[in-house]
Amino acid sequence: MVLVFTACEDDLDLAPISEPSAANFYNNTEDFELAINGVYNALGDYPANHLYLSEVRSDNIYSPGTGVREWNPVNNFERTLQTNPLMATAWNSSYRGIFLANMVLDQINEEKVEDSATRSRLTGEAKFLRALFYLDLVRFFGKVPIYDHAYSPTEALEIPRSPVADVYSLITQDLQDAISNLPASYSSPGKATSHAARALLARTYLTMSGPDYGIEGPGLGEDHYSEALTLLNEVISSAQYGWVTDYASIFSYNNENNPDIVFDIQFINDGATGDRGIGTILPTLMYLESYARITLPFAGGVPNDGTGGLDPSDNLVNSFDEADVRDDASILMSFIDQNGNPVNHPQYVKFLSLNHIPADRFNWGVNFPVIRYTDVLMMKAEALLQTGGSQTDIDNIVNDVRERAGLTTVSNVDLDMLLEERRKEFMAEGLRWHDLVRTGKAIDVMNAFATSDDDADKISTVVANDLIYAIHQDQLEVKRGLYEQNPGY
Fold this sequence. Notes:
Blueprint: H1 2-12, H2 19-25, H3 29-41, H4 46-55, E1 61-62, H5 72-75, H6 85-107, H7 116-141, E2 144-145, H8 153-156, E3 161-162, H9 164-181, H10 194-209, H11 225-237, E4 261-265, H12 289-295, E5 311-312, H13 314-317, H14 326-330, E6 331-332, E7 335-336, E8 342-343, E9 347-348, E10 368-372, H15 373-387, H16 391-404, H17 415-425, H18 432-438, H19 442-453, H20 473-478
Helix pairs in contact: 3-6, 3-7, 4-6, 6-7, 7-9, 7-10, 9-10, 10-11, 11-15, 15-16
């Protein structure tokens, strides 16, 4: 957060940003609409952050590398991540969004936005987004500084990291306020709704309920499963969302904002410009360089040397039943290279469309799902498992997901079975690592994965301290002693 303020100060030659300057910008409803769009825009790094810090960290990707790629140390559970740029990006991008949300919340009032419904909606959007950014921070870093309004750089230098429970207090209050202030739907898609806030609050409650592992991480070891279940049932009973029968179509460029989408990040490809900020780089981070050379008009992609790319793990690929349609929709197993030779190397193509190629590799126009209706249903199954709920309801939810995937039904679904189904359903969507940590499975699953799949012998033994990431060294050096490094780094 300090870096955000410092950058603003340098760029605008303001020391600190003055209250009158902010007040002069936020004058009317149109100004606040533009400002809240800026908060949504701060989600631009969200897909990449979760690819690197959730998918790569999990058993969905195997990328041991040689230390050249910045995500290799994440894959390998190295304890030198305090200098890794991915830590800085995840921290700074979230706090940039928090700062922008706080500016809206600090300035909005009935004089500047006279219509009460509009004022409530803008407030609700800002609080929803602030909560989303803080949930990311607490899941990645544990304790973080709380900024509940826009502080000056000098003030920010006096704010330490707060206990995780205090961060959750802000998140839950923000989401409860968002539920009260947001509409159930809009005439056009892309904005947070009251049901999206319910779903995000349910996700928060499940995360809080996870084990604490003896660290100051995202789990508090508390029981909020019943609260989560109530919220999830409200989303389901709202009839705002529905079942999409074809799995691949959920992610189609021609079927965005379909009934499975509760909240997603809107990305645009205008077909002409290559300005990053309206499109996403996500597909480029997953396809292979050699594949791009034969299919795309620009460079990009990851290497297919077997160690450095963002490869679907053999463990994941081999887990699919032959009848399962989800791997076919999400993973390309082989292709013919520019020399006519077969390349038998899996790559994620879940968010790639050769029929919607942008002007450059940074600008793919596919939305990224943050919360899907399928996730709402499967979170309900998780809450039912944790509260001793109806086994029939649990089995029905999982079997609906399996039947869409082309699989036979199962019975007596337990937590391990649910997690395995979630793994396949949401691969490349940034949920896997969070699922493992939340359910107490991360250490055992990842150590077993290292034993079975780490042919390069790069992955360190996973311990509790690895369940949250290092605070980047830049943050520690802004003011010595303000933050302490997380244990283990």
